[in-house]
Amino acid sequence: MKSSLLILLSILAFSFSNAQIPEFKLNKIGETEEELLGQSSLVDMDKDGDLDFIVGSGGGSVWWFEYQSADKWVRHLIGDLCLTDKGGITIDVDGDGWLDHVAGGTWYRNTGDPKKPFDRYENGAIYAYDMIAGDINGDGTTDIVALSEQEGLFWYNFSASPRKKWKKVRIGDGVTGGIAPYGIADMDNDGDNDIVRSNVWFDNLAGDGSKWGIHRTISYVESLGKFANSSRVFVLDWDKDGDTDIVQAMSNNGKCKMAWHANKDGKGINWFTHHIAFETTQDLHSLCVADFDNDNDPDVFSGAGPMTSDLRKRCIIWENTDGIGDTWAEKEILNGYESFDATCGDIDGDGDIDICIKPWKGSEVYFLQNMKIVK
After folding, report:
1. pTM of the model as a whole
2. Are the C-beta atoms of 272 and 241 separated by less than 8 Å?
3. Is the bond into 22 cis (omega within 30 degrees of 0)?
4. Half-sphere exposure (CA, 13 Å, Cβ side) for 334?
5. To which H or E segment does residue 7 belong?
6. Reading across the β-sheet that carries 343-345, which strands appear in turn?
7. In sequence order, which residues have a C-beta less than 8 Å from that of residue 315 and are 6 or more positions away?
8. What is the mean pLDDT of residues 289-314?
9. In angstroms, rounded to a whole number, what is the distance separating the alpha carbons of residues 65 and 77?
10. Would you state the pLDDT for residue 24?
């Protein structure tokens, strides 16, 4: 009996240490006309059933790259003179069924022919480092949340008159990046959406976004220096216990770490940190949470940003080898390429998760095609 148990444990250990992380093929999407690239979105801009890649520059232009095949993308201009830092998000602003693009203090209306430049409007929003979207006031429509270290954290209600200046409500102070790619969820199980901002989360006290409380319960990222409390966050029910947990990657730092935080009491007060990567030599300025190997549990992707301390900038997937986020297998899927706020999804329609990456300082954007065979 004892020998059988030892054999079983050996098999399990071997399985965990030989995780099947997929290979990825690098395809060039195209080039932008400017550098300092932000505003990542991966959406079906032209309603043809596949995902397209949106990218914009700080204070310059915004483009969308139309997916036609893995090695063929067509660039289209969304618009110029965007009033933003790095933040942008693609949603249907005016409710006409076509996806528009929001870039800080500007938004671009899709007139129904996305291959032509969009109509440009100024909305009065801040020059955002991060932008995310969700229903803040509980009216069933999508609102925008924007973050800037200098100006703070705000949400915007625009559904009644999107072409006029948007109504804003201040949530709290800002940091250099901390709500993207997805930091909006019901953190305390009271039926409304709250906001996670790197080292704290903001409680939507009245449920309509008019009053906010702050919970300083997430202490993980660097708290000192020029880029204090900078991270990428993604919220989901990781352990499937009915409450919202947080995946977090430190960013804007040469030696970053990554973890997921379990919401132990279901109210966002008591947390338990599960380490994914104790320390890397990379600036983890991307965070994608998805099932990259089709084994029905979430894995994590990150790529190196501009502050990476290593001579090699790497793209890495951490596979959730035990299915519950306690043991991880790390695989480098690409090196020598910067990844600033990557996005992921099934771009080529073959049933697995692909990745789009772009640099901060650079003009070339890329498609990492998941080559795992779907059975």
Report:
1. 0.92
2. no
3. no
4. 22
5. helix 2-17
6. 24-31, 364-370, 354-357, 343-345
7. 301, 302, 303, 304, 332, 333, 334, 335, 337, 339, 342, 355, 357, 368
8. 95
9. 9
10. 97
Question: From CA 76, how far away is CA 220, in angstroms rounded?
Answer: 40
Q: Answer with the residue of higher pLDDT: 369 or 18.
A: 369
State both tokens at 356.
Answer: 């789009």
CB 365 within 8 A of CB 55: yes
Alpha-carbon span 285 to 180, nearest angstrom = 10
Q: How confident is the model at residue 202 (pLDDT cuts 50, 70, 90)?
A: very high
Tokens 């240490």 map to which residue? 17
* CB distance 94 to 86 below 8 Å: no
The residue-averaged pLDDT of 167-177 equals 96
Distance CA 285, CA 375 (A): 33
Please classify residue 256 by burial: count the beta carbons closer than 10 Å to its beta carbon, then call 0-12 exposed, 13-18 middle and 19+ buried. buried
The strand order across the sheet containing 245-250 reads 181-182, 231-236, 245-250, 258-263, 271-277
Write out the two tokens for 245. Answer: 């947990």
Note whether 253 and 273 are within 8 A (CB). Answer: no
Exposed/middle/buried for residue 72 (C-beta within 10 Å: 0-12, 13-18, 19+): exposed
Q: Which two tokens stand for residue 94?
A: 């005016």
Q: Which two tokens stand for residue 73?
A: 């993308």
How many C-beta atoms lie closer than 10 Å to residue 8's C-beta? 10
Query: Between residues 144 and 225, which one has the greater pLDDT?
Result: 144
Q: What does the DSSP assignment read for 186-199? A: -SSSSSS-EEEETT
pLDDT digits (tens, 9 = 90+) for 6-39: 333 333 333 344 448 889 999 999 999 999 999 9
